[in-house]
Amino acid sequence: MAMAGARAGASKQALRYFLGTCIPSVKQNAVKIRVQRLDLDKNLWMYFKEYNFVYAHDPDKKCNIGDIVLIQTLPEKLTRLITHKVVDVIYPLGDITDPLTGKKVVVSKYRDDIKEINQLYGESKNAFNYDKAPPRGITKDKRDFTYQETYVKYQEDPNDPQPYAV
């Protein structure tokens, strides 16, 4: 009888998965994730975007700022703030793939469609060529500083620019 009561009182926490965007964080071995959800306004009967911010454990440093990642709730909190873990990087920043067709996307158009339009009307000299573009990470230390350690800026000092402050 005591076992049945113990089982009835203990409940399992469901492991939940979320998609979110990685944003700058000052935590070590963790990333800050912005998770979007829709909130119903019952007066207007419309949904509006709202954001929740969670910290996810990422010791391998898989994700960079701007990546869309899949996170999972942990069965137990690692710390007071870290409640999730990074499962996988779904879309690296700037490289979105349509999940239904498997084609690469730029804003709201497929890259193949953009190529066809450029062939029909003539390509601009300033047009960006996605085939020749290097993958993310090649511009590290030149134009991409998202991997740098961030820290909190406490004061404004014109002599100290503090380029990696949050």
Q: Report how far the terminal alpha carbons are from each other.
A: 56 Å
Largest sheet: 5 strands, mixed, barrel
What's the average pLDDT? 84
Strand content: 25-35%
Fraction of residues in helix: 10-25%
Uncertain spans:
1-9
Going across the major beta sheet, what is the strand order?
1-2-3-5-4
Q: Output the radius of gyration.
A: 22 Å
Helices and strands, in order, run as: HEEEEEEEEH
Number of helices: 2
Label the structural class: mainly beta
Shape: globular
Can you count the beta strands?
A: 8
InterPro entries: NA-bd_OB-fold, Ribosomal_uS17, Ribosomal_uS17m_metazoa
Family: Belongs to the universal ribosomal protein uS17 family.
Keywords: Ribonucleoprotein, Ribosomal protein
Protein name: 28S ribosomal protein S17, mitochondrial
Word description of this protein:
The chain starts with a helix and ends in a 45-residue tail after the last helix. The model is unreliable at 1-9 (pLDDT under 50). With 166 residues, the chain is mainly beta. Helices cover 11% and strands 33% of the residues. The protein contains two helices and eight strands, in the order H-E-E-E-E-E-E-E-E-H. A five-stranded mixed barrel has the order 1-2-3-5-4. A three-stranded antiparallel sheet has the order 6-7-8. The protein has helices spanning 2-9, 111-121; strands at residues 17-23, 30-41, 46-57, 68-73, 82-91, 96-97, 104-106, 109-110. Belongs to the universal ribosomal protein uS17 family. This is 28S ribosomal protein S17, mitochondrial. Keywords: Ribonucleoprotein, Ribosomal protein.
